[in-house]
Design a protein that fits this description.
Layout (H helix, E strand, L loop, with lengths): L12 H13 L2 E5 L2 E5 L1 H5 L3 E5 L3 H13 L19 E4 L5 H4 L1 H6 L7 E5 L15 H4 L7
Parallel strand pairs: 3-5
Antiparallel strand pairs: 1-2, 2-3, 4-5
Length: 146
């Protein structure tokens, strides 16, 4: 396995800031349309990277920062500590989704040599996306990467 990216590997300011923040803080948060995800947790804390869909960028970033401060999370167990509004549940992200949804992790780790978990959130009635009663409009906001 190749070592992770270093400053000398960076081609632009965004990449330099990403690598610098990971070096200083242990992770960074990347915003993509419809999602936010961490980069660096696998290296710095031996914990799967985290991704969340369907939240405004600022809210998604705050949630991921809070999650990183409370590691380790437990796979498939609801957690109430990350937000006062609702519970979240970490679920494994399949490798086949890395390319589409976790591109800067693939860049940073020079491939798919990392694990990732998706933080799923419930509807206002506390139903998670796999529940048949979960409204379609909420389900569309967070695709299942399992």
């Amino acid at each position: 396995m190749k070592p992770v990216r270093q400053l000398q590997d960076c081609e632009d300011l965004f990449e330099k800031r990403l690598v610098q923040e990971i070096a200083e803080r242990g992770f960074s948060v990347v915003h993509q349309p419809g999602s936010c995800y961490t980069v660096g947790l696998w290296k710095s804390r031996q914990h799967p990277e985290l991704i969340v869909f369907g939240l405004p960028a600022e809210r998604g970033q705050k949630l991921l920062e809070e999650a990183a401060a409370r590691l380790p999370l437990q796979l498939s167990q609801e957690t109430a500590e990350l937000t006062l509004e609702y519970r979240l549940r970490p679920e494994t992200v399949k490798l086949e989704h890395h390319r589409e949804f976790l591109s800067y992790n693939r860049w940073f780790y020079r491939g798919d040599h990392f694990q990732a978990w998706q933080l799923t959130w419930p509807d206002p009635d506390h139903r998670f996306p796999e529940d048949p009663e979960h409204p379609e409009r909420f389900r569309q906001l967070q695709p299942s990467l399992q």
